[in-house]
Amino acid sequence: MFNFSFDRRTMYIIVGVLILIGVLQYLANPGQLYGLLISIPGVLIAITFHEFAHAFTADKLGDDTARREGRLSLNPKDHIDPIGGLMLLVAGFGWGKPVHVNPRNYTRKMSMEKGEAIVSIAGPIMNFVLAFVFALIYCAIYKFADVTFFTSTVGNAVILIVAGVISINIGLGIFNLIPLPPLDGSKVLIPFLPYKAKEWFINNEQLFYIIFVLIWLTGIAGNIITPAIQAVSDGILSLAQLIFGL
């Protein structure tokens, strides 16, 4: 998923500032702390399955690097980056421990670029699949649960957790499809670029890292992906409602 390859100190200073701002916002409004706690299961599920999907797909394409590093696991501790997870909670975007792959080990039935694209897009696809599965659970609760469940503290918490899993998975999936390094979308884009554009894109990767940071600090990224998140959320929930006749 998210893999830094330039000045980490600069990035972590920026990340630290964003986390501090997010924490201060929650402290200024203690009522939001409950929402933060409710979001934790969604963050753990979204990042764990996202990174597992990368590892699993690479393994199926013939590269056992992730398997040897213990990443073919659904244990959150194998995939959660503490800072990246906290960022997803308080700042709206984050990352897990990057899954290491060696494209040279991929099956020769396709180019290394196509193999990387498939491995990269596996993470976001997994997030969308999870969002749909939990949308079905969400609709099933509304169809079959009784009034007592909805009015209980536990019932309310369950509904909020399920809703959180849906929204976080959709957000993480769309976020990672942005075609900028270090996100998955950049590797998905490369096989479709003309040779010269591809060469320029790869040679100027560091520039794209800077652009990536700037669009998040300025809020441009949020303005770009929020409509996409809303559209995908509406589509997934509408399909789940149709299945349950809601």
Your description of this structure?
This protein has one domain. The longest helix has 33 residues. The protein is mainly alpha-helical and 246 residues long.
Percentage beta strand? under 5%
Q: What is the averaged pLDDT score?
A: 84
Calculate the terminal CA-CA distance, rounded to whole Å. 36 Å
Shape: globular
Instruction: Classify the helix fraction into a percent range.
Output: over 70%
Structural class: mainly alpha
Alpha-carbon Rg, integer: 19 Å
Number of domains: 1
The low-confidence runs, each spanning 5 or more residues with pLDDT under 50, are 2-6
- SSE string, helix = H, strand = E? HHHHHHHHHHH
The main sheet comes to: none
- Number of strand elements: 0
Instruction: Give the count of helical stretches.
Output: 11
Question: How would you concisely characterize the structure shown here?
Answer:
Helix content is 73%, strand content 0%. The protein is mainly α and 246 residues long.
Overview features:
globular; mainly alpha; 246 residues
Topology summary:
Blueprint: H1 8-28, H2 31-60, H3 65-68, H4 82-90, H5 112-144, H6 147-151, H7 153-176, H8 184-189, H9 195-203, H10 205-217, H11 220-244
Helix pairs in contact: 1-4, 2-4, 2-5, 2-7, 5-7, 5-11, 7-11
